[in-house]
Amino acid sequence: xxxxxxxxxxxxxxxxxxxxxxxxxxxxxxxxxxxxxxxxxxxxxxxxxxxxxxxxxxxxxxxxxxxxxxxxxxxxxxxxxxxxxxxxxxxxxxxxxxxxxxxxxxxxxxxxxxxxxxxxxxxxxxxxxxxxxxxxxxxxxxxxxxxxxxxxxxxxxxxxxxxxxxxxxxxxxxxxxxxxxxxxxxxxxxxxxxxxxxxxxxxxxxxxxxxxxxxxxxxxxxxxxxxxxxxxxxxxxxxxxxxxxxxxxxxxxxxxxxxxxxxxxxxxxxxxxxxxxxxxxxxxxxxxxxxxxxxxxxxxxxxxxxxxxxxxxxxxxxxx
Length: 320
Ligand code: NCD
Prior knowledge:
- By secondary structure, the chain is α/β, with parallel strands linked by helices.
- Helices cover 40% and strands 14% of the residues.
- It is built from 11 helices and 9 strands.
- Helix 1 packs across helix 5 (137-151), helix 5 (137-151) crosses helix 6 (169-180) and helix 5 crosses helix 11.
């Protein structure tokens, strides 16, 4: 077994070999997704519950489809934070669901660390679908698969991650993953949107977009996450677009074959020009969505296999 984790809570605890194992399996599912028969059986008979305490379109749909394509019984619960008290209530909800014996629990929560806390309380495998500003591991994995498929490798690439780094769990998980795979990672954004302590992350920081994009193989744009801002981080959206919005002129500083990525949802005309986002020769934004399903199928298959091994070991009296 080259993927040994019980849960997928973040990129931080993953070994590069585990990342490669997961991407190799996802690659096979990506091919299957393009064929006529899209079904596998890795999750036959298993129950998957998706708990989203924060709005989501693509991540939720992607997890749901991934589970169904592998044969799981999938239930998606949309939990509005306003109706759920924090802390104890999260745990109570989890314990209630745990009593229904799910095998896979997919959780998105606005508080960093909430998903880790929950994983300690349940008997099934937990997948983090985004917790606060902390981590969004399946997004980083689907980005990695998209890069590996378009660039032919996932090491020694020059990668610029641009925009609202401070509020982004996508940036954090990507920085961790791309760093583990030995890429050159550059963060580009206004100082107000670059998190404190970033110098310990093994990345370079640029305030000027053209300097940051120079020589880039990959340009990853991030959404300006207004809902996570509690003050004035930028002078105005117009000024922000002028300095940090990805348009043809700024993109020309990157390599000629640089790809453009965005996790979605996009603010066209704020962090990215709509024509760049739609340019099929540069933008891989649709491929990212496609790879999302494949990566989530792979992640759930690997975790389900580990869960079943642990249960068998427990049943035969051996400590897993
Ligand atoms: C991201 C998220 O929710 O963190 N979106 C996503 O999962 N596709 C990024 C964002 O919200 O900007």
